[in-house]
Design goal:
single chain; 14-stranded parallel β-sheet; two-stranded parallel sheet; leucine-rich repeat; Leu-rich_rpt
């Protein structure tokens, strides 16, 4: 029967077996047992949410349903469980999550060992910040649970009912620890409080942190210089902040495992990291900044890049592209006078994807007229499978613009 029921969606199971009323019925029959099986099937392999508020478009497990499952000694097998706490300023919220974890966490761990946690903060004052975080982590440590994503979000009143499913990744895990941490507080002073907590308390759950998302925190150059990042970080997201320069004050020297760095949508005008260290950095996202060149790419830190996104900058010439590059996005730059016989070999042979969309290729900016015929020697790019030229112009044609030299 379980296999047959697995072909039905959660909504279909709820409707066909009247599961919303199941927990309130006191009579028991053979059909009642079938409905309990359907109830368990509803959550099989799903992403279940437990929260102190109703969340639209999510498969949510209410307090009453949770008590029913435990009382009836039923078992469900969700893929993962996300605990989402709204209005952390309220003493009610603190009481709710403390009660939930102390009474139900051990039982929930029998269902899955995959947990996500999200705190949503409204306003400037969080009741007992350290007390709340300590209580949460202590429960998870005692139950030997792994937290896949732990997120702290600052939200306005208008965002009160929003729920960001994208916070929760599908990655697996092995050790009892937080592997992914997101702090989006829209204010660097707020960020300092929580970031200091994770650093100063040497949180046991954070020793294996792999992903750190600090986007949307208004981080500037001065604040960035004071940030010390956990050494095992592989993915660091600093996008959508207020960073102007990236220099040796950026504490990246201890990040020997860093594979992806996202600095998109800042105000970067200069990158002057002089560290002589080689790195494992493979993905660098610099889109939406104010960079005029990419001369910084000759540094050892960038020599193993596989994926480089420089779209929507002010770049007018290219140099020092890493020989390991496979994916390069230059869309939305100013390369109108770049392509000629002297520069056509700048791209590494390893390139598989090249995006040159909206780069004003074929346009002479000085006269706002058609420039000299642009040249790209494709025979030197034997692995190239994708070349995007959308939005360029040569003799008023808006498609394939670059001459192929045989």
């Amino acid at each position: 029967m379980e296999k047959t029921l697995s072909y039905l969606s959660p909504d279909e199971l709820t409707c066909k077996f009247d599961l919303d009323n199941l927990i309130y019925e006191k009579t028991f029959s053979s059909y009642h047992q079938v409905r309990q099986i359907a109830f368990s099937a509803k959550y099989q392999g799903t992403h279940v949410t437990i929260s102190n508020m109703n969340i639209n478009n999510s498969l949510q497990l209410s307090d009453s349903q949770l008590r029913y499952i435990i009382t009836k000694e039923m078992t469900i097998r969700p893929r993962e469980i996300s605990l989402v706490l709204f209005d952390c300023n309220s003493i009610y919220s603190y009481t709710y999550i403390n009660f939930m974890l102390s009474h139900y966490l051990k039982k929930l761990k029998l269902f899955t060992n995959r947990f996500n946690f999200q705190l949503n903060i409204y306003g400037d004052n969080l009741i007992g910040t350290e007390l709340l975080l300590n209580a949460i982590f202590q429960h998870f440590i005692c139950c030997d649970c792994t937290v896949n994503w732990f997120a702290i979000n600052y939200k306005t009143v208008k965002q009160y009912n929003e729920f960001e499913k994208s916070l929760f990744s599908e990655k697996g895990y092995k050790n009892p620890s937080i592997e992914n941490l997101k702090l989006s507080l829209f204010n660097s002073s707020k960020l300092r409080v929580y970031f200091a907590y994770f650093k100063n308390h040497n949180c046991h759950l954070c020793h294996n942190l792999k992903t750190l998302d600090l986007s949307y925190n208004n981080i500037d150059d001065e604040f960035l210089a004071r940030l010390y990042f956990p050494p095992l970080i592989q993915d660091l997201d600093l996008s959508n902040n207020n960073i102007y320069t990236l220099s040796d004050s950026f504490n990246i020297s201890n990040l020997n495992n860093l594979k992806k760095l996202d600095l998109s949508n800042n105000n970067l005008i200069k990158i002057s990291i002089s560290l002589g260290m080689s790195s494992k950095l493979e993905v660098l996202v610099l889109s939406g900044n104010n960079l005029h060149n990419c001369n910084f790419l000759h540094k050892p830190l960038f020599q193993n890049l596989v994926n480089l996104n420089l779209s929507r900058n002010l770049i007018s010439n290219l140099a020092n592209l890493p020989l390991s590059l496979k994916i390069l996005d230059l869309s939305g730059n100013f390369l109108s006078s770049f392509f000629n016989e002297q520069t056509m070999n700048v791209f590494p042979e390893s390139l598989v994807q090249l995006n040159l969309a909206w780069c004003k290729i074929g346009i002479d900016d000085r006269l706002n007229s058609i420039g000299s015929k642009p040249t790209l020697k494709l025979e030197n790019l034997p692995r190239l499978k994708s070349l995007i030229l959308t939005g360029n112009r040569y003799h008023n044609f808006y498609s394939e613009l670059l001459q192929v030299w045989e």
